Amino acid sequence: MTSLYADYPSYCQYPKIADKCDLNIEIGKWYFPKFKLPKGKTAENQLREMVAKSALEQYGKLTPEIQTRLDYELDLICSKGYASYFLIMRDFIAWCEQNDTPPTPGVVPAALWFPLFWASSTSTR
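Structure (tokenized):
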């Protein structure tokens, strides 16, 4: 490091940031950012409501086939604890829409496109 910043010796005089950190991450535990939800709502409820609303807007009427597929996908997402992750990704998509920035598969992993299709307004369509 010293040779890399030979022209800036003061950069190497400070203690390493890593030596100042005390971080313990429990293996097997999920760490998601806090997603602000309406009072009395869980992430699962919020995701299901967003998907249901958007699917109705998209199709007008949900056939048993569509409802079965939505239920399957949402049950899987919620049972694995990913509802808040999907809400966060939806928030990213909303920001992209508001800032004229197309969300790409680099922004949204491919596995999320199907459920987010119904949770989002237009970007994933």
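The helical segments are 17-20, 43-59, 64-79, 83-98, 113-119. Residues 33-119 form one domain.
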